[in-house]
Amino acid sequence: MHSFQALDSQYIKINLLNVAKNYLKLKSMLKDASVVCSAVVKANAYGLGIKEVSEILHQYGCCDFWVMNIEEALIVRETSPHANIYVFQGVNGVEELKAMLHYKLVPVVSHTRQLEIINNFPNHPIEVILNFDTGIGRDGFQLEEIEQLNLKYCDIRYVMSHLSRSEIKEHPFNEEQLQAVKSLKERFPNSKFTFSNSGGIFLGQNYHFDLVRPGGALYGVNILEGKKNPMLNVVEFNASVLNHKIFNKAHSIGYGGTYKVNKGDKVLILNTGYYDGYRRVLSNKSRVYAEGFYLPVIGVVSMNLTAVDANQLPDELFHTIKNVELIGEKITIEEIAKLANTDQREILTNLQYNCKRIYIK
Amino acid sequence: MHSFQALDSQYIKINLLNVAKNYLKLKSMLKDASVVCSAVVKANAYGLGIKEVSEILHQYGCCDFWVMNIEEALIVRETSPHANIYVFQGVNGVEELKAMLHYKLVPVVSHTRQLEIINNFPNHPIEVILNFDTGIGRDGFQLEEIEQLNLKYCDIRYVMSHLSRSEIKEHPFNEEQLQAVKSLKERFPNSKFTFSNSGGIFLGQNYHFDLVRPGGALYGVNILEGKKNPMLNVVEFNASVLNHKIFNKAHSIGYGGTYKVNKGDKVLILNTGYYDGYRRVLSNKSRVYAEGFYLPVIGVVSMNLTAVDANQLPDELFHTIKNVELIGEKITIEEIAKLANTDQREILTNLQYNCKRIYIK
């Protein structure tokens, strides 16, 4: 006799308590209490919810947040009226600058046009983060530009730079960038500095300077790829079982028929697919976890459905199982990112915004 | 002298008028006026906005919509009070069934447990879509199960099946599935049938039966991969230029330093990255379009930033350019999907839900 309960819908569970614990752990690694541990909550806190994440971190003592743009800044400002909020995209127009000053947001200044906006503004000085490119080759002034910069209207809160290979601890480029930052330090002897992202924190205390900017590590990304993850897991992504299917004959599975099952094979059909952020590249590659068993994904992941081989499951369990873990304690973000041949952070930011979310705090 | 206008933010422009035109074009391909052209608007209309899409299609005469679940159905019900709404995930509990009946939603019945829920419900008959698996190997009853099915409480609106290789026109499996559906037709001689997705419509009129269910083609997916797209483009995904950078010396670009520029090279830094749905796999592979020029993406696509080689741009244009097309008329979804080694639909559903959207209608 089957029960007629409604389908347990899929969900993404976000453990905010573990975000807070990760924050405290990173903070405990810093050179001393004078180093500020900020939090990068840009990109909707890597897709996990900027409001919820900044709120819990603020409760646990974080007073410095990094966001992408003004829209994100205002979300953080609401939950943390007195926090320092730094805006990566900086200020790209006069109206934007007025809004930033009104809400006490600090723009990152990364190129001449942004500096000109500051310099042409009537009220001075204006607090900024002054961003130099010591190797990322993306945003930030080039070191050779220093002498031409007119900084007299800037109140520099931090001189900033960004690591480009920090997750490979032994990469000589880290040391090169460190030396470049030290040379900047000579140029700005009275300024505070911020250099390290999550990876930088693990490179050692000489990388910490005055403020560190962890992002991924807060959300459970394994910075020490391939080694034991020093951070706690934050995300649990679960799918519901839509159908428990025993095949009556040999049959191909999914679009293009890339996998074949035999007569008698047990297959679970899950209500989750690439629309939800369970990426199509995982087709015939990844596995899900359920009640002590790892079940391989078979066939092509569809937009809203995924099939898994459930032959290992005892009959009773096969017929009653309702949920499986796609990502979580047993199937790490790192495992999925490796199979998807991408960065762990893309797995996080790719999770469907629309999906039901449960916040643990 | 630079202008100080605010940064033109990135946006996703969705041409609803072209969705409607695509719908009318597909409808014109059908066997005759008795064949119903429905619209698959599940998965938030493939990520493009279920409310907006169903609304315009309803205005253009579409009265039959397919959604994933009740939540989506209710969005369509609001804009189209009298439309037929079919729910792919079907009914998975008594309360769900009550809600479906209340809102006049028609569940797809794909397996025994769902059929039992119907059969155990006091009010009969209940309108359903009866789903058979003729080859997709995913959802749907197996043909061998027919004799055991107790269908006396079902009012079958359509018998349904789904193609698994419809985008490869010459694939013999299409014909095999067609034959299986024809054999079902003998078993249910008085029932109406629905079989074809977008691809099926292009396989020929013998695949159309009583109702067709296009999805991707409505949204500009090229069903005839590699050939000229018969559908109109729907999505335009634009990024803003954050920084116009001329390198003072040879420099590596992005995380891991996977690309090197030389002294004097011109690079545009865009405010869009994999968070926004511009996938990381496109790193060093794809190109963007701006004012007659195709500019290659260089280095690794970051979460919120992408660098492009802008050496081809004349100086004046390089310094003033504000926007580039990532996906649109010039850079098709098909091109991006091919480079990303995935299905065109995943490119659509992966676009950031949070991103600013502009609807053309």
From TrEMBL, chains A, B:
Q: State which Enzyme Commission number(s) the record gives.
A: 5.1.1.1
Q: State the needed cofactors, names only.
A: pyridoxal 5'-phosphate
Similarity comment: family membership: Belongs to the alanine racemase family.
Catalyses which reaction(s)? L-alanine = D-alanine
UniProt xrefs under SMART domains: Ala_racemase_C
The record's annotation in Pfam families points to: Ala_racemase_C, Ala_racemase_N
- Alphabetical list of PROSITE patterns matching this protein: ALANINE_RACEMASE (PS00395)
Q: Does the keyword Isomerase apply?
A: yes
Sorted alphabetically, which keywords does the UniProt record give? Isomerase, Pyridoxal phosphate
InterPro entries, alphabetized: Ala_racemase, Ala_racemase/Decarboxylase_C, Ala_racemase_C, Ala_racemase_N, Ala_racemase_pyridoxalP-BS, PLP-binding_barrel
Annotated ranges, domain Alanine racemase C-terminal:
234-360
The protein in question is named: alanine racemase
The protein's superkingdom reads: Bacteria
